[in-house]
Amino acid sequence: MNHLPVLAVALPLLVGAVLVLLHAVPINARRVVALLGALAQLALSIALLRTAADGTVSVYLLGNWPAFAGIVLVVDRLAALMVLLTATLGLIGLLYALAGQDRRTPHFHALFAFQVAGLSGAFLTGDLFNLFVFFEVLLISSYGLLLHGGGANRVRRSLHYVTFNLLGSALFLIAVAVLYGVLGTLNMADLARKIAQAPAADAAVIQSAGLLLLGVFALKAALLPLYLWLPNTYAAASAPVAMLFTVMTKVGVYAVLRVYTLLFGADAGVGANLAWPWLLPLGLATIGLATFGALAAQSLRRLVGYLIVASAGTLFVAIATASEASIAAALYYLLHSTLATAALFLLADLVRRGRQQAGDSLRRVDALAHRTALGLAFVLAAVSVAALPPMAGFLAKAMVLDAIGVQGHGAWIWTVILGSSLGVIVALARAGSHLFWRGDSAPGPAGAAALRPRLPERAALGLLLLLGVALTVFAQPVSEFTRATAAQLLAPQALIAHVLGAQPRAQLEPTP
Amino acid sequence: MELLLASAIGVLMAAGVYLVLRARSFDLILGLTLISYAVNLCIFAMGRLAPGKPPVIRDGAALTLAQHADPLPQALVLTAIVISFAMTALLLVIALRARSGSGSDHVDGREPGDQA
Amino acid sequence: MLLPILLALPFAAALILLVAPRVGRNFAAGVVACAALAGMGVLAWMAPAMIDGEVLRFNVEWLPLLGLAFSLRIDGFAWMFAAIVLGIGALVVLYARWYLAEDDPPRRFFGLLALFMGAMLGITIAGNLLLLVVFWEMTSVSSFLLIGFWNHRADARLGARMALTITGAGGLCLLAGVLLIGNIVGSYELDAVLAAGDVIRTDPLYLSALILVLLGAFTKSAQFPLHFWLPHAMAAPTPVSAYLHSATMVKAGVFLLGRMHPALAGSDEWFWIVTSVGLSTMVIGAALAIVQQDLKGLLAYSTISHLGLITLLFGLDTQLAVVAAVFHILNHATFKASLFMAAGIIDHETGTRDFRKLNGLWRYMPITGALAVVASLSMAGVPLLNGFLSKEMFLAETLAIAHPPMDWLVPAFALLGAMFAVAYSARFVHDVFFNGEPECPAGIPHEPPRFMRVPVEVLVIVCLAVGIAPQYTVAPLLEIGARGVLQGPLPEYTLALWHGLNLPLVFSVIALVAGVALYYVLQRGKALHRRDDRPLAKLGFDATLERVIALSRRITAAMENGSLQRYLLLFILSVLVLGSAPFLAAPSAPAPASSLAPHPLAILVWVLAIAGVIAVLRWHRQRVVAVILIGAVGLAVSLSFVLLSAPDLALTQLLVEMISVILLLMALRWLPQVGAPEPATAIRWVHAAVAVACGVGTTALVYAVLSRPTQSVSEYYLRSAVPEAGGANAVNVIIVDFRAFDTLGEIAVYAIAALIIHAMLKGASSAVLPAHATPGPHRTSLLLQISTQVLLPLAIAMSLYLFLRGHNAPGGGFIAALVLAVALILQYMAAGVRWSEKRIASDWHAWIGWGLLAALATGLGSFAFGYPFLTSSTPYVAIPAIGAVPLASAMGFDAGVYMVVLGASMLMVSMLARLKSERGAA
Q: How would you classify the pairing of strands C876-879 and C883-886?
């Protein structure tokens, strides 16, 4: 039988465990293991995507128990896509870290692997409580990675970040518990079926639990008013970590997509379309405030942090429209924004090294080494993030606007999104002109050589930008895939039937 | 009995939230501990209350929820206990480092009075 | 197939310049010039088709879901415009080769120039409106980079940002407008849109679409009041100004007006908006041009005014007006480009562009002077030059307007504008080449290098040729272009120098005379030199931008003040809202409860818990006390587990409680023993209220569930625990079998926590200790030591026992490991680290790693039998004194759990303990 789904989680766990055992050996050995693991993970997730591409939903019964009793992994298009995204960014981040940032703390590689495992698990699981468990896995790894490199500022940010997420986890548990208490199951497909059949008397309790979950996911995805932790936290993280974190906010987005199309979708009886009315206004407000934040940002990394928040807002606006076209656009937008912001985080790091004194500050002026090359990369990434042609960002934004249309609130949504685009353009133009144009040219060759981005770093950045370009050039196949994904999400009955119908293989007889 | 448990959970939660909202890292940890108690009891309660019926298969007891407490929430609580303990321990160490970094145990790393 | 090649040429040039190893000025200019000339060749190849009025198309799918296709389409209008773009482009490149200084990086300059050329070409031949927007925005970006080419200059940076902001905003409007048109027509293909004019004009969304598209066009073509970015764009190198800001990019706006004419024009809205904007721009631009002190400033405002003129013509919306507009596009491109180049030469040779310094250059550079004079006469609309012809047509059209009051308003202002045009042309000639002696920073001025002048000469010759013999030179080109705009047959018109004595001619004469007179009056005694030309626009733009930034800072600071309390409060409040909303919306009556009678012991535990909580709240600043109290609360919790038949939970809770208390006490040595008192502020009451609300909410929610009948899947576990999973303890079976995957994640979390703690405290003991920390004295009681040493073997046995029976009775890997861990920790406490680590030294990392591997291995093992991950098989073996033990593969998994939990717990504690001991030793 096909073990791909579980391997996508087990492999990084295995790699992590091995890396723990190797914690004392010279770092190069660990690097090799980690790199091989990441490559294997990428191969795995590509294979996984191929299985899901034609719309088949693979259900993996862990422990060979029926779905409602055991834990299932469910691979549909969305899950496969997210796993692939994770594996890709994981590999690139690792590559970047190989240039030396992985030396700053013991266990960096192990934590990195565990983080990937947690992300993949969260994307693949079909069980609500198991989703919580993998949230915890990816969160605690992220704590370790955030602290990676030390420093008082990082520690304080981590304190805030951890506190937040601990409350979030408590909330998650309560919500799951209540759902179990009312419906008596944890399997998402089973929950979906039972919510659809739930009597009106249970409506309030079920909806309340559902909305508490929304609170949890909104916290992860940085939605108003729960985004405040993000800019500083991400700004405090080291570059490879920050770029992996760009996927973490997307976990929240994923969870919203999954839970509120599967459990609380259009035909979920008492829980029908639970989240959309909340997400639309909050998303719009988030875009607005994030744009102000981007304009106000005084360091490149905070600017990028706010761009991530803004993209989350845009995503939720598109998702809340809950049409096939809008969700397809949202998924395309998700891919683009993840890649572009990740690239910007790496750039911010290289800029910080290139300007010895001023770091990535947007107030202080300083010479910048290798500014032509960095500037070129910045233009590419910035053009994409600012949704300017010809990069993917433009296509994504155009798709979103087109999908939302001008009917109803459409005009307002257009105004907000386009207005925020203008704000982002201004902010990025200011930042770019400050970083790459002000201040005399770079220091002498002696200094410059030392500041030169190392090969793995250049490779990582180049890969990200290249992927962005590929997303633009191959817009047709990608968008068709996201369109199909959206269709699959909006018609969950097939998935539910698949999961609940999955039969365990004949059990080994216990010898008495 | 239900009301008893529910109210206890509520009290734990309220106290926990209040302590979490104190600005000191240690109070924060106390508060989170109380909240985790509340959450664990909450999960546990969702299996309904069944005094004197441990979910261990005994001869003669019918294999129904009438004869046994619901085992699933208990398993969940076990997982939850472990995770929340791990998190608390981690937060504790972070708090130590934060204090040593800033010289203050205020969660924002500075005493309310002074700036920066 | 020619179209993609045509478009690819400039981009290819840019790419070559990007990758070429070494790039000199000659090479760079050569590459781009070749691209431009080759493009011209392609256009020439297409000429016959164009003359026959054909439309060439090329189409490739790009993003069908959006309706965006990579479709190119060239008709007469596009063809003519492309010719301008490439022709002037070639000349500009040649010019720039000599203009650029040694230290200007040619790679960047010519690369960007080529990029822009490609984008501009794309605008002209795009066959899909979205594709047009794509190229449109690309011109904005490349122009931003070109204006900022000399980025060490503040004015260049500001000019670039201003241009990008305004044109970028316009681009977004255009995008919105295009999307609207797409929604109306159902396609973005230009052919479909141009054919659907009536549908569009009758659609309710027409006005919004029109306004949005016009905003795009007006920002690009610097129409009043959005014109102010263009003068600041003059900070760009002069070739850029000549190319982008006179001949091509600013023409993109009017090109769009022409392009969309069949689809959008022909309505009153169009007439009134476009005409009035064009008219005001023409007059205001011309007036401002007179009073500039900067050579390029004058040219910039004159460009604005001429663009206004063209816009006005498109607004008039008669076929002849369109012809005139197209004609003027051609003429303006020629004479204005040549003028910019002349200005560049002057700047290059004298080192200044200031009218107040530049005087009497005629003596020093007569040839350049002559060229510039001819070009500016054309700009003024003097006969025998091309400017005159199109201006005549323009005046004729203004006199033909029917709508009052425009029928007299437009001609009047047109005359005024023409007059101003003459005035500033006169100033350009007189103030630069005569009117005194030059005071040049760059010493005695002289003629430029030969080839720098060639492009100017070419253009001036064109001006003359067209002006003298239009019907033999420009006529066919104009016909092709105009037909492209109108998408149909052309009206009757004759290109001739002499149309007989008519009103337009009279107007021209009046304008000439009055204009010269006006300049004479204004300039008497160099009066114009004393006007200050502080660019108000700049100040306004800066101020606005700064205001926006400041506002953003305020908002952001207000939202994100760095206070954790504030964020947590926000979070909790939003959760309260979310959680309670459904109940407030539809208060649901709780179903009748099957309530249990409160057990007396339960009441006791309840009281204990509540009392403990209250005590914690009361004494939470006496931290040692608080820890003990919280331990008590934990005890109450585990008691309640006992009461409610959850032995495993009770045990686990108890053990975890012990370890946490120990950890907390250890940690307290480096935290203030007594919490700082808190100022009694109102916020505390808010917090209290919120807390109470949370409590009430949770209680309500829990009770609401408890008062409902249960319907759980759990009976399955009870039924299949023994027969299928081989364990009587349903909880443990769930943990290690049914939901073992959860447990896998759980031990991973536990392990990671330990790793992080290790990483944070490793060798950081000195750093971790604040100087003012006062750890208690380090004592080890002998009694405790002995007792623990006795206790240790016992604990090991106990933990082994618990582990083995776990599958059938309360116990299991986790609990067993904790038992041992607690014993070892007591050892640490009692005997101190050094003593303990001598005896129970162990690499806890190995325990963690191997534990994880063991758990994973058992999971993967089932692959061998063709079963999914973590499938268990349960052969039993009999062990004396314990009974039949299921040697389930689940046991292997549980062993993994055991190792991880033990290793992780010990790692955490030993790190903290070592910290302490080092402090003790210090």
A: antiparallel
SS3 (DSSP) at C820:
helix
pLDDT band at residue C880 using 50, 70 and 90 as cut-offs: low
Q: What b/e sequence results for C330-354 when a residue is b if at least 16 CB atoms lie within 10 Å of its CB, and e otherwise?
A: bbbbbbbbbbbbbbbbbbbbbebbe
Peptide bond before residue C535 is cis, with ω within 30 degrees of 0: no
Question: For B49-89, how does the pLDDT look when each residue is reduced to its tens digit (9 = 90+)?
Answer: 888 888 888 777 788 887 888 999 999 999 999 999 999 99
**Hey, are the CB atoms on C664 and B21 less than 8 Å from each other?**
no
Can you give the pLDDT at residue C882? 56
Per-chain mean pLDDT for chain C: 86
The answer to whether residues C238 and C341 touch, using CB atoms and an 8 Å cutoff, is yes
d(CA A74, CA A57): 7
Q: What is the mean pLDDT of residues C70-81?
A: 92
| Nearest residue, CB atoms, A152 vs list B39, B91, B109 | B109
∠ CA A78-A80-A86, nearest 5°, is: 105
Q: Give the C-alpha separation, A255 to A122, whole Å.
A: 8
Q: Tell me whether A155 touches chain B (CB under 8 Å).
A: yes
Rounded to an integer, the average pLDDT of C138-144 is 92
Determine, for residues B21 and C706 on separate chains, whether the beta-carbon distance falls below 8 Å.
no
- Report the run of H or E that residue C273 belongs to, with start and end: helix C268-290
Question: Quick check: A507 pLDDT over 60?
Answer: no
Residues of A in contact with B25 (CB under 8 A): 159
Q: Rounded to the nearest 5°, which phi and psi values hold at A361?
A: -65, 145
Q: What is the pLDDT of residue C23?
A: 82
* pLDDT attached to residue C180: 94
| Helix pair C106-125, C2-19: axis angle to 10 deg | 160
Q: Is residue A467 pLDDT above 90, yes or no?
A: yes
Q: Smallest Cβ distance to A174: which of B39, B73, B109?
A: B39
Tell me whether strands C56-63 and C68-74 are parallel, antiparallel or unpaired: antiparallel
* pLDDT of A189 over the 60 cut: yes
Mean pLDDT value across residues A192-197: 93
Q: Which residue from B minimizes the CA distance to A178?
A: B46
Residue C332, pLDDT above cutoff 60: yes
What is the Cα–Cα distance from C465 to C156, expressed in whole angstroms? 37
Determine the 3-state secondary structure of C170 from DSSP. Answer: helix
Restricting to A residues 296-335, those with a Cβ less than 8 Å away from any Cβ of C are 296, 325, 328
Q: What is the pLDDT of residues B93-108, one digit of tens each?
A: 998 888 877 777 787 8
Residues 31 to 90 of B: which have CB under 8 A from any A CB?
A: 32, 35-36, 38-39, 42-43, 45-47, 72-73, 76, 79-80, 83-84, 86-87, 90
**Given a cut of 80, is residue C840 above it in pLDDT?**
no
Instruction: Label each residue of C636-667 as H, E or C.
Output: HHHHHHHHCCCHHHHHHHHHHHHHHHHHHHHH
> Which residues lie across from B24 on neighbouring strands?
B106
From chain C residues 399-418, the ones with a CB under 8 A of any chain A CB are none
Instruction: Judge contact between C384 and C508, C-beta under 8 A.
Output: no
Q: Coil, strand or helix: which one is B63?
A: coil
Contact (Cβ atoms closer than 8 angstroms) between residue A8 and residue A41: yes
Buried b (16+ CB within 10 A) or exposed e, A437-458: bbbeebbeeeeeeebbbeebbb
- The structure tokens 């693979």 sit at A58
Question: Is the CB of residue A219 less than 8 Å away from at least one CB of chain C?
Answer: yes
Helix, strand, or coil here: A410? helix
Complex ipTM more than 0.90, yes or no = yes
Give the number of residues written for chain B.
116
Instruction: Name the nearest CA neighbour of A20 among C878, C823, C845.
Output: C845
d(CA A170, CA A161): 14
Q: Is C843 helix (H, G, I), strand (E, B) or coil?
A: coil
